[in-house]
Amino acid sequence: MRLNNRGVALITVLLVVALVSVLASQAVWQQHLAVRRSTNVLMQQQAMFYHLGAETWVKQWLKTEIPAQIKGVYRLPSTPITGGKIQAQLSVQEARYNLNNLLLDDGQASVLDIAYLQRLFKQLDLPSAWVMLLVDWLDADQTVLPDGAEDGHYLLAQPAYRTADQLLSSLSELWLILPMTLAHYQSLQAHVCVLPQRTKINLNLAPAALLLALDQQVTVYQADYLIRQRKQQPFSQLTEVSKAVQDFPREHLADFFGFDRQFFSLSTDVSLNDISFHGTSLVQKAGQQMRIIQRQL
Fold first, then answer.
1. Residue 139 and residue 109 in contact, taking contact as beta carbons nearer than 8 Å
2. pLDDT for residue 76
3. Separation between Cα atoms, residue 105 and residue 123, nearest integer Å
């Protein structure tokens, strides 16, 4: 009988030890996760401050004469920091077409910009009908344009959502509007942008596709020749284009092209103790005044 009691006691002790071991290991694991989470939050905050520091540097740097020499994109050298490195890139947004130009200041659709963007989409091998989806997304009414879509279309999606009925705030909104692939998005990303006001494309920075979209009469040779000419000597007036490139269409040149460098996109990538952080900021330059229009962290 005593042997049986001893056996029961031994089994009970073993069960208690096993239970305590499980609880202890679980507590250690939870503590490890808590420490790891705290470390991640701390590193992310530190990385965010590195991005804010890059913003401050860019705002001072844009006050110099150097930004006028940026050929669309300026990549800053990789800079080592404690525990990692930071890489930054600054791009002139006027080197791209502003999708918010599809609406005029009075909120009405711009016929000229619709036609321009349709030609640009053709140059990029994208369906020109997608342009009307963008117009319906932007305009304030619920009238469905030909090839467009309003709330009734998007409410059938899973999950359901509605049109914004306002200007685009981020290029990533295109995923909600257009039935596109990653390749489509990357192609658009290189040629279009989203800015808070109507802007013109910088003639000295525009890629060939934006030049070809000006008019169906613009040839590939003319676009390439214009790009070669501006590399030798950047244009300062639109009237110089017709002198430099024979028979280049001029009717709507001033409607779409200019020489502004007002909006700059700052992109940073911070690697800190095996944690990666990406941040973007939209900087507006008005003379010597710099303003952060948008920040995504």
1. yes
2. 83
3. 27
Q: Going by C-beta distance under 8 Å and a sequence separation of 6 or more, which residues neighbour residue 31? A: none
In this predicted model, what pLDDT tens digit does every residue of 173-210 receive, in sequence order? 999 999 999 999 999 999 999 999 999 999 999 999 99
Q: Which residues pair with 3 in a beta bridge?
A: none
User: Using CA of residue 129, residue 132, residue 134, residue 136, what is the dihedral sign?
Assistant: negative
Q: What is the pLDDT of residues 63-85, one digit of tens each?
A: 886 666 777 788 888 889 888 89
Tokens of 220: 């590939």
Pairing of strands 257-258, 201-202: parallel
pTM beyond cutoff 0.70? yes
> Could you tell me the pLDDT band of residue 116, with boundaries at 50, 70 and 90?
very high
Give the number of other CB atoms < 10 A from CB of residue 145: 16
C-alpha closest to that of 245 among 256, 229, 257: 229
Residue owning tokens 């200019």: 258
Instruction: Kindly state the average pLDDT of the residues 106-130.
Output: 97
Q: Is 116 helix (H, G, I), strand (E, B) or coil?
A: helix
Confidence tier at 216 by pLDDT (50, 70, 90): very high
Buried b or exposed e, range 115-131, using 16+ CB within 10 angstroms:
bbbbbbbebeebeeebb
The CA-based dihedral angle spanning residues 176, 177, 183, 188, taken in that order and rounded to the nearest 10 degrees: -120
Give CA–CA dist 290/43, Å, rounded: 28
Contacts for 61 with CB less than 8 Å, ≥ 6 apart: 67
* Conformational region of residue 143, where left means phi above 0, alpha means psi within -120 to 50, and beta covers everything else: beta
Element (H, E) at 81: strand 73-81
CA distance linking residue 263 with residue 285, whole number of Å: 6
| E-strand stretches of 214-297 | 257-258, 263-272, 275-286, 289-296
